[in-house]
Amino acid sequence: MTVMGQARMMTRGGESAGYLDGQMLIAMPGMMDERFQRTVIYICAHSAEGAMGIVLNKPASDLSFPDLLVQLEVIPEKDAIRLPRRVEQMNVLIGGPVETSRGFVLHTPDFFIDQSTLPIDDGICLTATIDILRAIARGRGPESAVLALGYAGWSPGQLESEIHANGWLSCEADPHIIFGASLDLKYDLALRKIGVDLGMLSAQAGHA
Description:
This protein is α+β, with helices and mostly antiparallel strands. Helices cover about 25% and strands about 25% of the residues. It has seven helices and nine strands. The longest helix has 11 residues, at about 5-15. It is globular and about 50 Å long.
């Protein structure tokens, strides 16, 4: 089964209370896993089958969105300098340590590809086909979007255990943080959203 198919299964299963699909995770200061230190993650799917999410604030080093479009042969190299400004400035993220060669686009719901786009909540969708990159390059894509390479995945019960062990805080998703904020500011803004002062938060603190 494809990653998107698994996400659809988990999203359907995540309708029960207690699951976090459509919310953001915020790493606690004591996060031991270096891959997730000071990260904010948007949870795309969460159920008894496990969870998957996209890290929102880790940039892909030395890789711009125009460069990626050229590498994927979405556009010829000569057209890379002719892209609309907002396309040139679109963030390319390291979405997580799983399947880092695959691209996942989180975007606003004004763009939809039948059988390819997964609506997660009222304001956020996920599409993982190259067609959305072609649309963005032509100025026909969603109003707001971020591209992530790879994703974060949890086996059944793993995310719940990490939260119980005080590894993560959670809060409602904020499109302004997902799409608009500087990558360097997203962690502090997410904490501020739930009223947490990082200076007063210790690795042993309880959940907000």
